[in-house]
Design a protein that fits this description.
heterodimer, A: about 180 residues, alpha+beta, PH-domain like, three-stranded antiparallel beta sheet, B: about 70 residues, mainly alpha, elongated
């Protein structure tokens, strides 16, 4: 069995795997599309404005750097997807796991046990959030100031309900000696 | 004239190989990251292969453009 996170136990049931809403992936991809359109505009209008730059050796140098620029954009698309794909939050019957891939060399995994939950709040703010149904879910834990946050996730109300249901169904703690 | 073209060649080759080195290292780390932590091995492999195909194809054409200049 391939484990989703390093400390996953054999008897652990995964209820939900959550990623950032696709809207934010689309936004990042649109930035790349815009940068690509800038290159096309440069190649389209450039010869009319600076004709010398697009002829002979300078023209070929511009072509070479344009090609490098496109390669960087392709790498950008690849890395945007990798970060989108690897940033996940997992809700199991025992805990909530947040896997945060912040950069190529920065990965953080935080866990929160279901029985430590005190309060769950979901919020969707703004027109796009309401239209595309995304928002944040805050999980307040006992004894800690910091909240566990699911940022820009789809259907925050559903996630809130799943967490609360799991909290209600958590195994009873053994009696104190 | 010969000196100017030599200097241009050095600048172009230098800039090209630095840029390619950075691109290749970042690409490799991206692919390794996917292989190490990707949930679905098939999807990770597929995306990596498509990306590597694009990267190598563009590398070939860029290299040809560089040689036609310097």
């Amino acid at each position: 069995m391939r484990r989703l996170f390093p400390s996953q136990q054999d008897n652990e049931t995964i209820f939900l795997v959550v990623r950032e809403h696709w809207f934010f992936l689309l936004l990042r991809l649109l930035i790349v599309v815009f940068l690509f359109a800038m290159l096309l505009a440069f190649q389209d209008f450039g010869p009319g404005i600076v004709p010398g730059l697009f002829q002979g050796v300078p023209g070929r140098v511009v072509g070479l750097f344009s090609q490098l620029y496109v390669m960087m954009l392709v790498l950008g698309v690849f890395l945007i997807w990798v970060f989108y794909y690897l940033n996940i939050q997992i809700i199991t019957n025992l805990r909530i796991v947040d896997i945060d891939q912040r950069g190529l060399f920065h990965r953080r995994i935080s866990e929160l046990h279901i029985d430590k939950i005190e309060d769950v709040t979901s919020e969707a703010t703004g027109a796009f959030a309401t239209m595309f149904q995304f928002g944040n879910v805050y999980v307040q834990t006992a004894g800690t100031v910091e909240r566990f946050v699911f940022e820009r996730v789809p259907s925050p109300e559903r996630i809130e309900k799943v967490v609360l249901d799991l909290y209600e169904r958590r195994p009873a703690a053994p009696p104190a000696p | 004239m010969g000196d100017a073209s030599t200097i241009l060649s050095i600048i172009l080759y230098g800039a090209y190989y630095i840029a390619m080195g950075v691109l290749a290292i970042l690409s490799l780390f991206g692919v390794f990251l996917l292989a190490a932590h990707g949930r679905s091995r098939v999807l990770s492999l597929l995306v990596s292969l498509v990306y590597i195909f694009f990267f190598l194809t563009m590398l070939g054409t860029t290299e040809a453009m560089l040689h036609s200049i310097a």
